[in-house]
Design a protein that fits this description.
This protein is α+β, with helices and mostly antiparallel strands and about 130 residues long. It is about 40% helix and about 15% strand.
């Protein structure tokens, strides 16, 4: 939320964006190896490889196959969640959303920052 407020996005909008992005951010955080304390003697990694899914899928079940990686706050104030940043900017036009500064947040990069700042894993995985 502070990253948005530092860029001039008000508290109400920042709060809405933060709430809407929480699931996706959790997915990306838990997809990083450093976010997981694996106490399964390699069984968890084996399962990850067998299923061929990101680690985050084992902890977070977004409604879509994979959550949007980017949040764009257009100059018009419109907020959009997108998976493909190039496609989001492909229809440059005279739309008001392009008239001014545009903020792009990369949830995967923010996840890395959270892990770095935490300095420890977010979850522990154990066998039962």
């Amino acid at each position: 939320m502070s990253a948005l407020q530092e860029r001039g996005i008000g508290p109400a909008t920042s709060c809405n964006i933060s709430a809407a992005s929480a699931l996706g951010l959790s997915f990306f955080v838990l997809s990083w190896v450093d976010a997981i304390d694996d106490r399964t003697n390699g069984e968890f990694e084996k399962l990850v490889r067998q299923r061929g899914e990101p680690r985050g899928r084992f902890f977070v079940q977004p409604s879509e196959t994979e959550p949007s990686k980017y949040i764009i706050v257009w100059a018009s104030g419109e907020v959009e969640f997108v998976k493909d940043i190039l496609r989001a900017f492909s229809d440059l036009s005279s739309s008001p959303k392009y008239h001014g500064a545009i903020i792009v947040l990369d949830l995967e990069a923010l996840a890395g920052l959270l892990i770095e700042r935490a300095g420890r894993p977010f979850v522990s995985v154990e066998l039962r």
